[in-house]
Design goal:
This protein has helices at about 1-15, 25-35, 50-55, 65, 75-85, 95-105. It is an all-alpha fold and about 110 residues long.
Length: about 110
């Protein structure tokens, strides 16, 4: 568990500069990050895909934003949009893992 947290923190530190076009967050983003994220009930040991998702996505927005999403797009469309339009640094190898985790953890209607 401790190793997973360390790996997630290291990944977050490497991916943080990739958020947004300018690489810096504005005041609204800083306020969002300051608020503690709401956690979904998850198993005690997080999978490597869960750690990958958290490291890749929580650098730009809280995890609660994911669990509260009620739009019509699929997770695949959303992850692609985050990469192409918002500069998320998610590799082609990691993208399907994140989408699979999201589909399983936060199923879309």
């Amino acid at each position: 568990m401790r190793a997973t947290v360390i790996v997630a923190l290291l990944l977050a530190a490497l991916l943080l500069p990739g958020c947004g076009e300018s690489g810096t967050a504005g005041p609204a983003a800083e306020e969002e990050q300051a608020a503690p994220p709401q956690q979904q009930a998850e198993p005690q040991a997080k999978s490597s895909d869960a750690a990958l998702f958290e490291a890749s996505c929580s650098t730009c927005h809280p995890i609660a934003k994911t669990s509260d999403y009620d739009g019509d797009e699929s997770w695949s469309e959303i992850v692609t949009e985050m990469i192409e339009k918002h500069g998320a640094r998610i590799s082609p190898e990691d993208s399907p893992k994140i989408v699979a985790y999201l589909d399983t953890t936060y199923p879309r209607p």
